[in-house]
């Protein structure tokens, strides 16, 4: 009986019933001036904990594309001038990046209100995301897309996880690294939108609830030896 319930899928959020997040998704999707384009690696879509569907349900101005590279037609729709196109990716020696806060101050001074931004996000593991950016270089260059990175240092040594591993969620095993694309988008909107703080806060609270439900759901199912050991250690330290 219990087992059956665990397997039922909510038709709205496509998640198992016990971890349905419909109650935390904003009843009115949030409208943004920023146009968000998520290029989703085909392998990533199969990941149960992917947060892109959650973003799609929470925002109005968002498109997701499954593919390994950005193509011309993905970004050919014209944006009102003088809008800018940015893509979120950490800097490398050959391709420096502007920090989100620097971009924000640049953009704010161009006009008032600041021109809308098209934000491209690569949703994949490190290895895949690097390949995707490389394969998309030409299209990005032609679009005049600026590489923007999150302000907090992103550590590439966290291999295998999402490229947007974050302080907020990384520690929350067993879902660490899986929710961070949505968090990265939340942080970008926080900086780019006029009422960004509120949008960021809303999205983060949805994410937090998702993480909370997810970790509760996974715990009794597959207690991993490493985690159990850690938990035991923590308990002993507390005693
Ligand atoms: Zn649901």
From TrEMBL:
It comes from the Eukaryota. Its EC number is 2.5.1.25. Residues 6-219 form the DTW domain. Pfam families: DTW. It catalyses: a uridine in tRNA + S-adenosyl-L-methionine = a 3-[(3S)-3-amino-3-carboxypropyl]uridine in tRNA + S-methyl-5'-thioadenosine + H(+). Keywords: S-adenosyl-L-methionine, Transferase, tRNA processing. InterPro entries: DTW, DTWD2/TAPT. One of its GO terms (molecular function) is tRNA-uridine aminocarboxypropyltransferase activity. GO terms for biological process: tRNA processing. PANTHER family: TRNA-URIDINE AMINOCARBOXYPROPYLTRANSFERASE 2 (PTHR21392:SF0). Belongs to the TDD superfamily. DTWD2 family. This is tRNA-uridine aminocarboxypropyltransferase.
């Amino acid at each position: 009986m219990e087992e059956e319930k665990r397997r039922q899928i909510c038709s709205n959020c496509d998640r198992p019933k016990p971890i349905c997040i419909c109650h935390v998704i904003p009843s009115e999707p949030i409208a943004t001036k920023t146009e968000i384009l998520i290029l989703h690696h085909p392998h990533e879509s199969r990941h149960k904990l992917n947060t892109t569907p959650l973003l799609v349900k929470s925002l109005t101005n968002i498109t997701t594309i499954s593919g390994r590279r950005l193509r011309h037609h993905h970004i050919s729709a014209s944006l009102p001038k003088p809008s800018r196109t940015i893509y979120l990716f950490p800097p490398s020696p050959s391709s420096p990046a502007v920090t989100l806060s620097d971009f924000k101050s640049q953009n704010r001074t161009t006009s008032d209100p600041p021109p809308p931004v098209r934000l491209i996000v690569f949703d994949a593991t490190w290895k895949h995301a690097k390949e995707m950016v490389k394969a998309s270089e030409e299209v990005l260059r032609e679009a005049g897309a600026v590489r923007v990175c999150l302000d907090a240092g992103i550590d590439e040594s966290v291999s295998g996880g999402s490229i947007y591993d974050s302080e907020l969620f990384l520690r929350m095993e067993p879902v660490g690294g899986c929710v961070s694309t949505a968090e990265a988008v939340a942080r970008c909107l926080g900086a780019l939108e006029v009422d960004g703080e509120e949008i960021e806060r809303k999205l983060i609270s949805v994410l937090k609830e998702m993480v909370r439900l997810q970790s509760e759901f996974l715990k009794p199912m597959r207690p991993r030896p490493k985690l159990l050991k850690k938990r035991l250690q923590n308990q002993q330290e507390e005693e």
